[in-house]
Every structure is written in structure tokens, then in C-alpha cells.
Amino acid sequence: MLRAFVNAFKVPDLRKKILFTLFIIAIYRLGSHLPAPGIDTEAAARLQGSGGSVINLLSLFSGGALTRMAVFALGIMPYITSSIIMQLLTVVIPKLEAWQKEGEMGHKKITQWTRYLTVALALMQSTGLAFLFHRGLTDQQGNAIDLVPNWNAGRVALIVVTLTAGTALVMWLGELITARGIGNGMSILIFAAIVSSLPGEAYSIYQQKPLVVSLGLLVLGILIIVGIVAIEQGQRRIPVQYAKRVVGRKMYGGTSTYIPLKVNQAGVIPIIFASSMLYFPALISTLIHNAKVRSFIDTYLVRPDSPVYIVLFAVLIIFFAYFYTAITFNPIEVADNMKKYGGFIPGIRPGRPTAEHLDYILTRITLPGSLFLALVAVLPSVALATLNVNNLPFGGTTVLITVGVALETSKQLESQLLMRHYE
User: Fold this and answer.
1) From CA 293, how far away is CA 299, in angstroms rounded?
2) In Å, what is the CA distance from 25 to each residue of 189, 193, 402, 413?
3) pTM score
4) Does residue 65 carry a pLDDT above 70?
């Protein structure tokens, strides 16, 4: 990967793309440190690392901008959420499904509606954050934190408009990277946000724990990275044979290929879904005045070191891994396309038996992928419960996203280099 990055700098157009990507990342990081108007910066400094597990997880995707209540506080999360919603709606709404099959023009229409939905979600989330950060958070000593001290309608409207505009700007920056830079823009921005927080978290662990524990966590992180690479690259290749057919004077078919079914077909989407589901108890606890119900939620559903929280988080991840895999991969459609073009799996009849065979294999290989995904995601909570470590920099969603984006970007760089040096 490093060799590909060095060789890319030797090609003028690739060097321009890499420098452009780095320039956009610098703008994104600058906006992640500029506080929104009307925010108490001293209170925001007290909030760092004490906003609760769900708040910290959502802040991870913005590089800490959420707990700082910066201009880019919402980061790219509204766009990711709207993209997931639109992807799910294409299965339900026939009009969206027709757009998806239209090709480039249909994808442009879906992208435009995704942008509209992103702005709507940003408006709702920024309004909820303004109320939450005004009276719903406490520091590590249990003292209330108010990030919006001068509370009035004009101040709240200014904060909401600023955060929504910041989300729209982040969405535009991500699309600029996709169009004129290297890699997928949204993934690159998330990657930059996560990587920026890793050195600080590693140093805080080094200050809190002995050297032996710190080195042990480093070794554990390396093993996790190796496991994630193996799972991300792991796939089950199903052989497909195409029969020979004559069209006019030409003969087509007679070739062999395969269908690659990934072990982790859903990627990091199940973790995002599960964290969004666990975000609701944190909001409900700020709205409910019943002391018993609020105490139960705060003790078992919000604290990351609670066994109930860890088990619930793992179960939700496994469920959403199967759910999202079922949404994105349709065995019946794949079997029909194979039958249409004369393809068949050796030993399996075309049509319905092929679809059942694909569904059986996909169900089996998704189980180890979802279990590994849940194990990696709950590692920070386990570390907090056993080692009393607030932030585990080499575990959970952090490494999963960084490794996945790094692998995908390196593949794109290598393909670009191969295209330019192909003999």
C-alpha cells in the first residue's frame, strides 16, 4: 500500500488528485474545530470524553467535532443515514426501484433526493442536539453541562442553521473528493476524522495505565487489525458456468466465472444501525421525569460497561448484519439473471434451486462475519468494564472503518497505476 502511494506521487495527474484530497481534508478538519456561534467553549472542553458512550461514538465519526459543538458537529452522519434510508426505500417504493434500474440518470435522481433528505435530517438532528446540549449532559463528576447558556429562540435558530449548513458543506466536500480526488469522499472524510483522534486516545491510555498494559493493548490492536483484514478480504467464491449459444454467426458463452460472496457483506452499516437504536434510550432518559425509569435507562442502557448494554449492542449488530445483507443481496434476482444469460452453478438446477442454494450459503457465511463484527464493536465496552479504559483506540468501530477505507483506497490507487502503466 505504501509503495502504491509513493508511486502515485510520480504520476502528475495522480499527484494532483492526492494533493487535492489532502486540501479538502484540511478544510474539513478546520471546520471541526471552529465552534458554532453562541457555544460556551469552556463547557465544551469539560464535555470531552464525558458525553456518554453513544455521544462519544457519534462524535467519533466527526473527529470530536460533536462534543466541541463545532460547525461540522454533525459531520457526515446525516448523509450516511439518508443514504441508508434511500437504499432501503428502493426495495419498498417501485418508483425508486425503477430509477435504480435506469442507469446514470436514475442514480442522479436518487442522489438528489438523498441530498434533500440529508438536509432534512440535519435540521432535525441539530435541533435535538441544541436541546440536548442545553440541559441533558453531565461531566465525569456528575455536574450539569450547559453548552448554550444564553438560551433564546434566535440563538437556537442560529445554531441550527449553522450546523445544517455545515452538514451541507461536508456533503459537498465529500462529493468533490469523489469527483476530483482519490477514493470515496465520504469514507475518506470519516477516515480522516477517526485517525485524527487516535494519537490523543493512545497517549491518554499511556498516561492512565502502566507500560505493560499499554503494550498489551497495542499487541491486541495489531491482532484486531490482522483479523479485520482477513474478514474484510474473506469471500466465498461460487463457481458459475455459462453454456455456449450461437447468435447469428458468433458463438457466445462457454466461460467459467464465480460469484464472490463476502463474509462481511454489510460492512460497518450494522454498527451504525445498532448505535442509532441505542441513541434513543439516551434521548428518552432526558425527557422522562420518572426517577425509577430514568435510573434503569441510565444504569443499564446508556452506560457502556453495563452487561445489558454490551449484550444488547452485540445482538443488535448481529440482527442488522443479517437484515442489511438480505436487503442488499437478492438471491432470486441473481438466479434469474444467471438463468437469463444461460448461466448455472454446477450441480444445481437453474431458477429457484439456485436461489435457495445462494441463500443457504449466504446465511451460513454471514454468521461468522456478524459474530466477528459484534466482537470487534463491543471491545471498547469490555475494556471499560474490565480495564477501566475510557477510550480503546485500537478496537471497535475505529479500526474497522480505518482498515476498510485504507484497503479500498489502496485498491483504487493500484488500479489507477495499473491503468497508466499497462503494457
Assistant:
1) 10
2) 7, 9, 15, 18
3) 0.74
4) no
What is the tens place of the pLDDT at every residue in 225-274?
788 888 878 888 888 888 776 666 676 656 788 888 888 888 777 877 78
Q: Please check whether residue 88 is in contact with residue 327, taking contact to mean a CB–CB distance below 8 angstroms.
A: yes
Residue 228 · residue 263 · CB < 8 Å: no
Give the C-alpha separation, 293 to 308, whole Å: 15
Separation CA 27–CA 421 (nearest Å): 33
270 Cβ contact partners less than 8 Å away, ≥ 6 residues apart: 316, 317, 318, 319, 320, 321, 323, 324, 370, 373
pLDDT single digits (tens) 90-102: 878 888 888 887 7
> Cβ of 263: how many Cβ atoms within 10 Å?
19
CA 270/CA 372 separation, integer angstroms:
12
Centre a 10 Å sphere on the Cβ of residue 161 and count the other Cβ atoms it contains: 14
Write down the residue that cell numbers 451541507 correspond to.
Answer: 168
Strands (E) in 16-73, as ranges, are none
3-state secondary structure of 239: strand
- Helices 77-92 and 94-101, axial angle in degrees (round to 10): 100
> What are the residues whose beta carbons fall under 8 Å from the beta carbon of 20, sequence distance 6 or more?
177, 180, 181
Strand pairing report for 137-138 and 144-145? antiparallel
Give, in degrees to the nearest 5, the angle at Cα 79 between 165 and 183. 105
Burial of 370 (0-12, 13-18, 19+ CB in 10 A): buried
Residue 369 corresponds to which cell in the numbers above?
Answer: 462475519
**In this structure, are strands 245-247 and 250-252 parallel, antiparallel, or unpaired?**
antiparallel
What single letter denotes the amino acid at residue 231?
Answer: I
